[in-house]
Amino acid sequence: MTNKRSLSEEPRSYHHGDLRKALLEAAVQLIEARGLDAVSVREVAKMTGVSPGAPFRHFATRTALLTAVAEEAIDRLTGEINLSLQAAADENPLLQFRAIGVGFLRWVFANPTHFQVISTRAVINFEGSTLRQRNDVIRTKMTVLMQQAAAAGLLRTGDVGRHQIAARALVYGLGRMYIDGQFPSWELNEREALGESIVILDQFISSIRA
Amino acid sequence: MTNKRSLSEEPRSYHHGDLRKALLEAAVQLIEARGLDAVSVREVAKMTGVSPGAPFRHFATRTALLTAVAEEAIDRLTGEINLSLQAAADENPLLQFRAIGVGFLRWVFANPTHFQVISTRAVINFEGSTLRQRNDVIRTKMTVLMQQAAAAGLLRTGDVGRHQIAARALVYGLGRMYIDGQFPSWELNEREALGESIVILDQFISSIRA
DNA sequence: ACCTGAACACCGTTCAAGT
DNA sequence: ACCTGAACACCGTTCAAGT
After folding, report:
1. Integer distance in angstroms from CA B42 to C1' D12?
2. pLDDT, tens digit (0-9, with 9 covering 90-100), for B29-72
3. Residues of chain A with CATH 1.10.357.10
4. Which of the 26-55 residues on chain B come under 7 Å of nucleic strand D at their beta carbon?
5. Is this prediction's pTM over 0.70?
6. Which residues form a coiled coil (chains A, B) (predicted)?
7. Is A162 at the interface with chain B, CB within 8 A?
8. Does domain A19-57 have CATH number 1.25.40?
9. Is B128 near chain A, with CB under 8 Å?
């Protein structure tokens, strides 16, 4: 808040100190308030008090702006998953694997619009960013835990790699069904949705457990 | 093709005979060729050879146009599922339930952009259309089959309703992961994706079978 | 170095006027 | 009844010009 403006003047000039950051914050606000489609570079510029062309000094395209939002978002998602993993640090590998799913679901249901930004490829530049690598960190953890679970004889039958994809598709599907508005169809209101989703995950975990 | 134009004239006038249909076809072409975001009412009008305002005589908004596309799409999806169900007519309820999933996956992997139109609520008017009812037809079938499977002692433990949601979330998640470009992460190329997805579904079905 | 503000080629949507 | 074509208020993006 208190930076480069040399003296006590109104914040009316074109010095934000950190326009980049201000633009990202405005974009997040706009997503939260009016949805992903409502995010226009011009509106974000207006909210930040700069001219329509100014954001392009910091983000080459609208996609680049939203990709930056997605990178922030995936960091927070990873954080939530790590919290959940820590809380399960003393459990067996299968329950740690489950904890990843729980962390994912918690974050998605608490931050639906951020999940939308991460998961909707049309709106971000997944490859030309750090998103793939950040995603891979989580996936690698899942793989390791699944293999440990198999090695420890915790799993029933079936292919381990496919159990892993199934688990991923299950929680991803639950999250997408939520943001795609498919839960009302299933006679679940949104308040129960997270709890139900965790129960469903647990039932899946049970069904693959030895 | 041969209708209201009274005599042999160039099709240059504003009589398409069925402009509504022509607009829908153009929209589908555009989605197929350049993706959902590329669908603008103006472009669809241009492809059909009419003025920018003409489509609004048939579809009140861009959303209404895409909702009509979605209604067509869900009919084809239902058709594919029914085909799959017929092929499994002699099987037990659990395998018929599986057949719904297989039909869904087949259709999604063959028509990814149509699936995107159906599933992306932001772009269509789900409630103000017949989409919910058409969706309910399939869901009701799933519910009936699941209950029959339970009654016939075909299921292992767990809550039947939750197995049903899990199955739905699993195939929905696989479909969305596909159109969201998440399969490369899982070291699956797109050609193998359908086959793998069916194997994963089968593994899930196995895990809930008695 | 960073931002302004005009400009360009697009949008969705409306509506008087034409046939 | 159905379509045209101009108009309005928006877009994303570029770029000379200002500070």
Report:
1. 17
2. 999 899 898 999 999 999 999 999 999 999 999 999 999 999 99
3. 71-208
4. 45, 49-54
5. yes
6. none
7. yes
8. no
9. no
